[in-house]
Known about the structure:
The complex is a heterodimer.
Chain A: E1 2-5, E2 24-26, E3 32-34, H1 44-53, E4 59-62
Antiparallel strand pairs in A: 1-4, 2-3
Chain B: E1 2-6, H1 43-48, H2 78-83, H3 93-103, H4 115-124, E2 130-134, H5 144-151, H6 153-167, E3 171-176, H7 179-191, E4 198-202, H8 212-219, E5 243-247, H9 248-259, H10 264-268, E6 270-277, E7 287-293, H11 298-304, E8 312-314, E9 322-323, H12 334-339, E10 348-352, H13 358-372, H14 378-395, H15 401-413, H16 422-436, H17 438-443, H18 450-454
Parallel strand pairs in B: 1-7, 2-3, 2-5, 3-4, 6-10
Antiparallel strand pairs in B: 6-7, 8-9, 8-10
The complex binds iron/sulfur cluster (2 copies).
Amino acid sequence: MKLLLDSTRCQGYGLCQEPAPELIDLDEWGYAQLRVGDVPPGDEEAAVAAVAACPNSALRLVK
Amino acid sequence: MTGVLSLLPDGRHGLLGAPLPGAGLPGVVESSDSVAPSGGEDLARYLAEGGYAPLPGAGQPGVRAPSDPVAPSGGEDLARYLAEGGYAPLPVPGLLLDRIAAAGLRGRGGAGFPAAVKLRAVRDAPGRPVVVANGEEGEPGSVKDRWLLRHRPHLVLDGLRLAAAMTGAGRGCVYLSDAGAEQAVRRALAERPCDPPVDVVRTEHTYVAGEETAVVRRIDGGPALPTAKPPRPFESGVGGAPTLVANVETLARVALMHARPESADAVAGTHLVTLSGTRSRTGADAAALVEVPAGTHLKVLADLCGHGRAEAVLLGGLFGGLHGAGWTDLPLDHDRLRAAGGALGCGALHFLHPEDCPVAAAHEAAAHLAAQSARQCGVCVSGTGALAGALAAVARGEADHDTTDRLRRWSEQLPGRGACGLLDAAARIAGSLLTHFSDRVDAHRGTVCPPCWATSNGEGHRFTVPVP
Ligand code: SF4
Ligand code: SF4
């Protein structure tokens, strides 16, 4: 699975990072920065939670 | 001097016009100090073989005007283009596609992606493809695409219909912002309607309007702004159809490779480049559109436009960063420039006069990019603003070690984070300044630098080159 971020939608709410700190960093302005492209085995649930947490649908998971 | 020059060996066909019968080459390069120690074309040998011999009958020394594919009335002469093999039938599109693959033609919009791979991806995607000739060059220092559309519209349209045939497209589109280019293309289409039908779509002239997803969005009636990828246009582009967005120079080369199969490799291994540099004190501008073989050393190109003493070069328009000591030995080659930490991009080179300041140039370039941010991605708005602000502080002599540390960190962390390459360009400008000119950056601390002072509000106007 791949985690994708649409930078045009990311508003820097930072809500995605809490459920998935191993997948997402927040930069100094608060915008999400993906730590990995491919979701490592075991982190799928965190990835799904991050996607669900974003109020602006900026995150996507693709096969 | 603002001119149009061909540096192709005698008899080789280029995009600027058919070869002059029996013509040599402009005598413009001084000595063999531009010979590369290794790799690339050996200038000494090239000179020994008769390269750069004076051009009999040429007016201004060193300038070989294109041998007029341009009709007296303005546009390209259709009868002459047809007589030279233009618009020849393409009974087996796959053969041309194979030729393009074998010759290794790479896209000329900036990314340098293999043209055949893109053509095949569009052809093989489900749906009836659309082909787009992308003539919107957002890099202020590049003129080649507008020049081609103004002066060789038939060559570009020929390439477009060949791309349509190779991909099975049922619709074509020419995408541009330049009024002169639009006029020339419409006139050419009226002279000889295209099959498949071709629309002309006018856009605004911005840094990002020519980015492939912005092209698709604009043609579909939206704003010329990039979208997140995937999907890329080859999967889902105009109206959801697989779409080839091809730079007009790429298409012109395709047309020439069809008309001159025997020179296909040479045509694929040739570049249109726009050369410009710091304006002289008199305000005279030395800029040129030049067609040169790949591998030509940048020193040769600098000499051509009177910038042989340049201290630094800005590569790929604003996209490939600044390069300092050793730039003279760099060859005009995608892979070699990438290995050197730069990028050939659209082939625009801007040379900095020894009295100019790389900090001033970097600041102006970053300020231009920050102003041109499409302001869609928060990280781009914040990132380009922060980069330009920190470079301004360096230029004013107000930066401390924290400022340069932050610049370094941003230059490493910001690339790849926007929806398009604008943020990457700004990050590369900052990173390359620190890599190649750290001494100059340090020397600015607590002082006033005259060139920086003179250009503090420039916002990048100095990089704009008029179309010859
Ligand atoms: S929650 Fe959404 S908008 Fe907020 S930082 Fe994460 S991706 Fe960006
Ligand atoms: S990276 Fe910048 S210029 Fe590119 S789409 Fe995002 S905001 Fe616009």
